[in-house]
Specification:
Layout: H1 14-23, E1 27-32, E2 39-43, H2 45-62, E3 68-73, H3 79-94, E4 98-104, H4 113-127, E5 131-140, E6 143-150
Parallel strand pairs: 3-4
Antiparallel strand pairs: 1-2, 4-6, 5-6
Length: 151
């Protein structure tokens, strides 16, 4: 048994340990039940639970979630517009987010899907240094979609 101040009482019968805890106005908590003999500690259980919850909340607050950002392009995208979108893709990947690159086809553009595939291949080439392709380009209705994630 370990006392309220951290002092070691040694092996103490259960009823005596409960009595000591009541005298100090605290609770007797079993710390490691699998040990031989089991280890118990005298402490304020409400305060203990509060501190544990506070630690868990702090750990949850610090963890980073990975979002999926979307960049939309067209098959006939111009060089400058492409570079602006590419810079944004690099920024998202730098922040640790996945990027869903979408090429939207309208009207007769559907007949020239190879143009959209060329744009996505260009994105793959330009992003190889700091990103990996999670989902290769594929058609979904009138859109060609590819997912890029950080290395």
């Amino acid at each position: 048994m370990i006392g309220a101040e951290g002092e070691n009482h040694g092996v103490v019968p259960t009823n005596r340990a409960i009595e000591i805890a009541r005298e100090s106005g605290m609770d007797l908590v079993e710390i490691s039940p699998n040990a031989e003999p089991p280890v118990c500690k005298v402490l304020d259980y409400g305060k203990f639970k509060y501190e544990q919850q506070k630690k868990a909340n702090l750990a949850r607050k610090k963890q980073k979630t990975q979002d999926v950002k979307e960049i939309k392009m067209r098959p006939g995208i111009d060089v400058h517009d492409y570079n602006v979108k590419l810079k944004k893709i690099h920024q998202f990947i730098g922040n640790g987010d996945k990027v869903k690159v979408t090429i939207r086809f309208r009207g007769r553009e559907m007949a020239h899907q190879e143009l959209g595939m060329q744009v996505l291949e260009r994105v793959v080439e330009d992003c190889q240094a700091d990103a990996k392709i999670e989902a290769r380009p594929k058609m979904e209705g009138r859109q060609m979609i590819m997912v890029v994630s950080p290395k």
